[in-house]
Here is the input.
Amino acid sequence: MSKIDKVLYTGKTRTTGGREGGARSDDGRLDITLSPPGSAGTGTNPEQLFAAGWSACFIGAMGLAARERRVVLPADTAVDAEVDLGTGADGYALQARLAVSLPGVPREVAEGLIESAHQRCPYSKMSRGNIDVTITLA
Here is the structure.
């Protein structure tokens, strides 16, 4: 398990009502309504939030890897993240797929950036060995 030596940032939220409630950050920048996946509710859900957070972090990790390799990430770099909520032998579980788009970057270079990002991205580290994850170059 990774241990933090120096905290760089702490995100703080308060959630009420679970999947049919709301969440707000202590600074007010995040103030969302939550709805169960697939419901008629107008809010988002934890799986969408996880997908958004992971894909943003993954792009940041690719940026670090690109700078180390003196490669410029394309302005239209994107990660399409899908997070599934399902059931299995142990009850509820997640699985995820990340489809990375690096237009104009040679395949071998892109694959190296993706692998490096997956090794350093905190979301990838958190999921490794805990959920099924597939990462592809789109």
